[in-house]
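Example record

One chain of 255 residues, shown exactly as stored in the release files.
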Amino acid sequence: EMSMVTGVQTCALPILKMEEERMRAHNLAKSTATLALLSTVALLVVPSVQAANTADIHTELPSESGWNHVSTDDDDGLQVYKKHISSLGVDAFMGKKVLHASVDDDTLFKLISDVDNHETFSTNLHESTELGGGDYYQVVKAPKMLPVSERYWFNHASSYRDVGGVSGHLRRTWSTIDSSTYATELGHVTSTYAEAIEIAFTYGMWEIVPNPSGPSTLLYRTVSNPGGDIPAWVMSSLTGRTLPEIGRASCRERV
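Predicted structure tokens for this chain:
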């Protein structure tokens, strides 16, 4: 009898370990996907304006002042905020979510930084390709049932640890770069996605803010100019309503 019990335990341990790993991966993917979709919609809700200094934007976005609460999902806790960026004259958006206790901050940060694999947790991307030195390009699908073209961008990203001297405070920023620097890749994008429009600019950042007494908080902030002409009724529909709705739906669909 003891032999049988030991045998069952021996077989069960690998299964339990696999389930533990599966749940950890699930929570990582859910946390990231919940906020990743915000970038797709945020690109569509600002008017045409001129780009400003990257350093100024990356200083203004993480500032605590000026953020106004838009909505909170009662089921998953996703909070959405917006803030006027004075240097651009437009609104930025922020998604905020307390992470599941099982999520490892460093592992999540590596996932966020792994641009080549962004397609695995964002079904809204056609392509996501690293170019080296922090540069990359992405092609985003057009929202279904809306008269909006696909968009693409060439960006530069930088990663920071222990932000502000706080151990474990992680931040990854991005900003638009000149796509003509990568003529071959640009040619591939424009030939493969003939109707796609290059965005005028996008700035933003992911942050993982540690909490000594509990799980960390994941933040996603972005401000962008989508380029092209977007019908006023689409802008009106998306601004302040579609962003939080799709963000919440994204979280639920990935449970």
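Notes: The CA atoms of residues 42 and 67 lie 15 Å apart.
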